[in-house]
UniProtKB/TrEMBL annotation:
This is DUF6069 family protein. Keywords: Membrane, Transmembrane, Transmembrane helix. It comes from Iamia majanohamensis. InterPro entries: DUF6069. Residues 161-171 have a biased composition (Basic and acidic residues). Residues 143-171 are annotated as: Disordered. The chain crosses the membrane at residues 21-39, 59-80, 92-113.
Length: 171
């Protein structure tokens, strides 16, 4: 005689969309701060733009504030698109397109700056890594968990002896 015991799994608690988006903005800001530290402190790149008396150094505070403002602007744009067009995949694609355009536009500053090429390319890397982190993290916050579907929770099929069956892949 065999007994079957049904185990109940705990319900998955999902944070609110607002909390997820706040974490996405914070994560992009952390990526920017770590990137700055990597370039400036560890890499020894002098992030000074312009020369002479107008020269200004790109410091940690400027990087963190710019990343946080960009993240909040992206959040506002996504919320506005979702309110106007719904939370479907079309609004997400439009938002990603706008985000990529904004990221490309942000590269104009570093690429046209009066600075050594090491500084220019370091700032391009900083802009790109922060933008990609923000786009990826924020895209995961839309209804349904983002662009990737959740994995199936169904158990794999088994035979009478409990052995897992191999599934045939159509050719």
């Amino acid at each position: 005689m065999s007994t079957t015991i049904a185990l109940r799994s705990r319900p998955r608690i999902r944070p609110s969309r607002r909390a997820q988006r706040a974490v996405a903005v914070a994560a992009a800001t952390v990526v920017a701060a770590v990137g700055w530290a990597d370039l400036h402190v560890l890499g020894g790149v002098d992030l000074t733009i312009d020369s002479g008396p107008d020269a200004r150094s790109v410091g940690l505070v400027e990087v963190v504030v710019a990343a946080a403002l960009a993240g909040l602007a992206g959040w506002a744009a996504l919320a506005l698109l979702e309110r106007r067009r719904g939370r479907g995949p079309r609004s997400l694609r439009l938002w990603v397109g706008l985000g990529l355009a904004a990221m490309a536009l942000s590269l104009v500053g570093p690429l046209t700056a009066d600075a050594p090429s090491s500084t220019q390319w370091s700032l391009v890397a900083l802009h790109t890594s922060t933008g990609v982190a923000l786009l990826a993290a924020m895209a995961r916050t839309r209804a349904g968990g983002g662009g990737c579907p959740e994995p199936s929770r169904r158990p794999a099929p088994t035979d009478a002896g409990g052995e897992r069956l191999r599934q045939q892949v159509p050719r």
